[in-house]
Amino acid sequence: QKEVEQNSGPLSVPEGAIASLNCTYSDRGSQSFFWYRQYSGKSPELIMFIYSNGDKEDGRFTAQLNKASQYVSLLIRDSQPSDSATYLCAVQRYGNKLVFGAGTILRVKS
Amino acid sequence: ETGVTQSPTHLIKTRGQQVTLRCSSQSGHNTVSWYQQALGQGPQFIFQYYREEENGRGNFPPRFSGLQFPNYSSELNVNALELDDSALYLCASSFTSGGGDTQYFGPGTRLTVL
User: Fold this and answer.
1) Do β-strands A104-109 and A11-14 pair in parallel, antiparallel, or remain unpaired?
2) What's the rounded Cα separation, in Å, for the pair A86 and A76?
3) Are A51 and B100 within 8 A, CB to CB?
């Protein structure tokens, strides 16, 4: 079992729709959870982080965490073609390494 | 832009050679982590440096080594290059305060081993 699992996609949504990206993790000791966006040929860019159970909103993005179910998700409202990228979920115990999933490819169709 | 810089941008080496990659951390950050990202995969943790000491290491052989300098910049050295070392090498900068550690990535170095 991989430590962090994501559906590889591609996930295709029409412009203006809500994109829902999901991630599960195996280490119950994980404390911090991150979503990065990576455009082709570029490095990962931090979108959001979440530490506590529940929802955290930042603009068009909402991260959701459920530690009991070991589940993290990212919702993107009003999806735009510029949101087309690979979305990486990462989990962390205090301070140290990030453990990444393989990423979900999102395609927003105009 | 994160303020994290890496050099060089691209590098081509042959099998058996040695390579040094460099990273300058974001102002105010004291920790540098290095990751290897193969095509189509998520980044894999190589090691982390905090206050010039190695502070955790992933499942990479000893021919991957590193340094952190007093100004918090860092180097990744890889000896005896193998074809499978071809990847995007990412440096991430953060401020370690005993709690969560939010890491910001530099642009990466694309290494090709022939």
Assistant:
1) parallel
2) 13
3) yes
Contacting residues of B for A94, CB less than 8 Å apart = 98-101
pLDDT (tens digit per residue) in B41-95: 999 999 999 989 999 999 999 999 999 999 999 999 999 999 999 999 999 998 8
CB spacing of A94 vs B88 below 8 angstroms: no
Cα–Cα distance measured from residue A99 to residue B71, given in angstroms and rounded to the nearest whole number? 27
* Residues in A touching B98 (Cβ below 8 Å): 94-95
Residue of B60, B46, B52, B43 lying closest to B25 (CA atoms): B52
A58 pLDDT above the threshold of 80: yes
Report the chain B residue with the minimal C-alpha distance to residue A95: B101
Q: Measure the CA–CA gap between A33 and A10, rounded to whole angstroms.
A: 22
Could you read off the pLDDT of A72-81 as tens digits, one per residue? 999 999 999 9
Measured in degrees and rounded to the nearest 5, phi and psi for residue A16 equal: 90, -10
Give the closest-approach CA distance of A95 to chain B in angstroms: 5
CB-based contact (8 Å) between B99 and chain A?
yes
Residue A14: cis peptide before it, omega within 30 degrees of 0:
no
Per residue, the 3-state secondary structure of B3-32, as one string, reads CCEEECCEEEECCCCCEEEEEECCCCCCEE
Q: Which of A19, A23, A18 shows the shortest CA–CA distance to A8?
A: A23
Q: Is B88 on the interface with A (CB under 8 A)?
A: yes
Interface contact B48-A46, CB threshold 8 A: no
